[in-house]
Every structure is written in structure tokens, then in C-alpha cells.
């Protein structure tokens, strides 16, 4: 065969072959190690494996590994409603980098209701990036004779003994949102706290509790199966997963609210490293396959800078802090 120069080969070869033959493929995908000695980065989750927060962490960790140039592992630290995970990351030394994936129960509610949660969200952490948001759903048992939120409120006023609202846990966001709903609708309700979504759904499907508020991703499969009816969602707009279900505002209540999962870095992490991680996560959350994985889990993916995340947290506290304080809730 006639010998060709490298330039000729590169000109004739397919693009993928060019990168491989020239050795450029590795340099295009392999990241400069973000941490000395390729120290593994841990994403710490305050809940057991298999739950929604754990699934979110694993999607992000899988994508982040190629960018940081060292292993990225998910570490589950369940206990105390997620507070143990925050305490653990707060004390993480710079030589053992860690991020906390936390929700409002950990970063908003716990510091408000515990005399000493073991951490200060503002002093001990810096926001890296919001990862996803989730709505709440207002659902009724199939035996409850209503199909619209306005009908539900009229039914509760006519049947005050039935005004029991099941929530997955006392002190959870659905608990406080149920109080917000009662205030907005001027309906006196009684909150019934369960030990998780599974027993709540069992009683809702069985009709032992007439009304429930939980995260939309938990309620939607039972709604689709015809075992319960979700009457409204708490977002500012209808969910793309169920566009036939109206929002609370569309249903006549001036009320909205969302939950979220957000990545936080401890103060021990250098600010420039935390900022680089923020940019990486933003890139990850914009990728189509990442968004598809989140949507398959019935979660809304979000991409936000550290500054945008800080503003979101500020607005969120302004909305929810008065509700938690008015509730008088004590753990």
C-alpha cells in the first residue's frame, strides 16, 4: 500500500477514528484531577439507598466522575431525618472532599425546630447547585365524592369530622404545606402524620384517611392506576407528567410551593473548587439524557449557578419560615 502522511490519514478518516488515532480522545474527555492525589469525591445523602434522593445522587455522581478526574461515590448516612448527613459533611476535612445533597427538611425545617441541629446552613455550607424540584399533590381516596378541589373544600366544610389530612411524616414539607392549604382555604384540618409514604398510601387507597398531601412523584402512579385521585398540584404551572391535573392556583387557591434537592459544599472546601463543581453540575443537568433520567423518576431537573441557588434559598426561607414558626411544631 502507498504510504500516507499523518495529515492525509486524518483528512480521510471518520471523525471518531481521527480522535482515537491521534490520541486526542483521551485528552478531550479525561479531566484534570480536581482534587490532589485523585481523592474521591463523596456525595452524601441523609437517607437509605433506593429512595428518590439517593437516585438523584447516583445520576449526578455517574456524570460527575468523568469531569472531576477522580472517583465520585454516593455515601448514605441515614438518621435523624437527614441531620446526621449534614453534620457529617460539615466536619469533612479538605483532604476528604464531600458534597451534601439535601432537601428543605434538612436545610430549612431542622434548624428552625431543633434547639441545636448540629449545623448552621449559612455558616457551615455554601450552595453549589440546585439539582431538581418536585411538586406536592393533593389527593383523595376514591370513595370521597369529589373530583375538583373546590368540591373537596365544600365537602370538608360540610363534613368537618372528615377533615383529616394524611402526610408522610410530621415535620415534613407535606405537613407544613397541609397547614398552608388549610390557611389559604380557610378550612380547619387535622394533620395525621405517618411513618413514610408507603403506609400513607396504603391507608389512602384503603379509605382509612380521606385526604393526603405528599410529593407528586409518589402519588402519581396510584392516580394513574385509578386507586386515588390527585385533584391539584402545588407548582406554579401544571406538571408535564400529568398536564390534565390543574394547579392549586388554577383551582382557586392563591397557593404554590415546591420542594428541592440541592448540592452544598462544606466551608472546608475551597471556594474556587466549589464554584468549578457548580459549573460542572450545571452542564450535567442540561444534558438531554440526564433530564430524561430525572423525568423518568417523575422529578423536574434544574440547572442553577451557586448565586442563583443562594437566591432561591433566600426566597424559599421567606415563604416557609413563617409557616413553620406559626405551626408551633416541636419534634
UniProtKB/TrEMBL annotation:
Keyword Oxidoreductase found: no
Keyword Manganese: no
Keyword list, A-Z: Receptor, Signal
SUPFAM superfamilies attached to this UniProt entry: Periplasmic binding protein-like II
Signal peptide from the UniProt entry: 1-30
Protein family per UniProt: Belongs to the UPF0065 (bug) family.
Record's protein name: Tripartite-type tricarboxylate transporter, receptor component TctC
Gene source species: Delftia lacustris
Amino acid at each position: 500500500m502507498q504510504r500516507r502522511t499523518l495529515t492525509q490519514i486524518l483528512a480521510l478518516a471518520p471523525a471518531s477514528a481521527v480522535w482515537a488515532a491521534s490520541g486526542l480522545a483521551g485528552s478531550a474527555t479525561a479531566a484534570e484531577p480536581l482534587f490532589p492525589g485523585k481523592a474521591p469525591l463523596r456525595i452524601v445523602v441523609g437517607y437509605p439507598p433506593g429512595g428518590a434522593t439517593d437516585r438523584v445522587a447516583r445520576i449526578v455522581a455517574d456524570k460527575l466522575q468523568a469531569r472531576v478526574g477522580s472517583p465520585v461515590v454516593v455515601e448514605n448516612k441515614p438518621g435523624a431525618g437527614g441531620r446526621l448527613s449534614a453534620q457529617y459533611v460539615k466536619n469533612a476535612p479538605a483532604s476528604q472532599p464531600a458534597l451534601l445533597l439535601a432537601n428543605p427538611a434538612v436545610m430549612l425545617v431542622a434548624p428552625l425546630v431543633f434547639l441545636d441541629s448540629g449545623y448552621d446552613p449559612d455558616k457551615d455550607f455554601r450552595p453549589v447547585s440546585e439539582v431538581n424540584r418536585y411538586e406536592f399533590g393533593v389527593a383523595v381516596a376514591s370513595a370521597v365524592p369529589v373530583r375538583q378541589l373546590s368540591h373537596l373544600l365544600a365537602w370538608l366544610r360540610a363534613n368537618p369530622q372528615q377533615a383529616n389530612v394524611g402526610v408522610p411524616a410530621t415535620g415534613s414539607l407535606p405537613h407544613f404545606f397541609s397547614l398552608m392549604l388549610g390557611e389559604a382555604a380557610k378550612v380547619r384540618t387535622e394533620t395525621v402524620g405517618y411513618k413514610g409514604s408507603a403506609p400513607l398510601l396504603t391507608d389512602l387507597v384503603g379509605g382509612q384517611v380521606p385526604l393526603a398531601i405528599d410529593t407528586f412523584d409518589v402519588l402519581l402512579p396510584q392516580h394513574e392506576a385509578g386507586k386515588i385521585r390527585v385533584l391539584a398540584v402545588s407548582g406554579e404551572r401544571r406538571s408535564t407528567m400529568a398536564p390534565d391535573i390543574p394547579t392549586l392556583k388554577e383551582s382557586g387557591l392563591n397557593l404554590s410551593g415546591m420542594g428541592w434537592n440541592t448540592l452544598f459544599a462544606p466551608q472546608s472546601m475551597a471556594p474556587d473548587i466549589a464554584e468549578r463543581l457548580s459549573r460542572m453540575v450545571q452542564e450535567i443537568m442540561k444534558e438531554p439524557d440526564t433530564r430524561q433520567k430525572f423525568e423518568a423518576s417523575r422529578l423536574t431537573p434544574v440547572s442553577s449557578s451557586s448565586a442563583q441557588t443562594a437566591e432561591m434559598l433566600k426566597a424559599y426561607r421567606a415563604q416557609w419560615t413563617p409557616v413553620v414558626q406559626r405551626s408551633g411544631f416541636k419534634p
